[in-house]
Amino acid sequence: GVKQVAMLPLKKLTPLTGYLKGACSPLGMKKVFPTVIDQSAFEQEKIYVSAGKRGYQILVAAVDLQRLISARQGDISRP
């Protein structure tokens, strides 16, 4: 039912999440934001997401990430 989604504006990133550009992780944010994981991620055995520090990622099953952060599935990628 949501018609549009957008990334958080860069100037709001660090104050709201505690993360720097390039290190924003769906895990451990200071404030809980609604998170949507694209449907295509669930077609993969595992996906990489930021671990909260530039250059660091974690490998996780999309369903496990979805459960951990109470994310929604959605068709949000562009062809």
Description:
The chain is of the alpha+beta class and 79 residues long. It has two helices and four strands, in the order αβββαβ. The strands form two sheets. Strands 1-4 form a two-stranded parallel ribbon. A hairpin with a 6-residue loop joins strand 2 and strand 3. It starts with 9 loop residues before the first helix and ends in a 5-residue tail after the last strand. The mean pLDDT is 89.
Strand content: 15-25%
Helical percent range? 10-25%
Strands ordered across the widest β-sheet: 1-4
Major β-sheet profile = 2 strands, parallel
The number of E-state strands comes to 4
Look at the structure and give the mean pLDDT. Answer: 89
Spell the H/E element sequence: HEEEHE
Uncertain runs: none
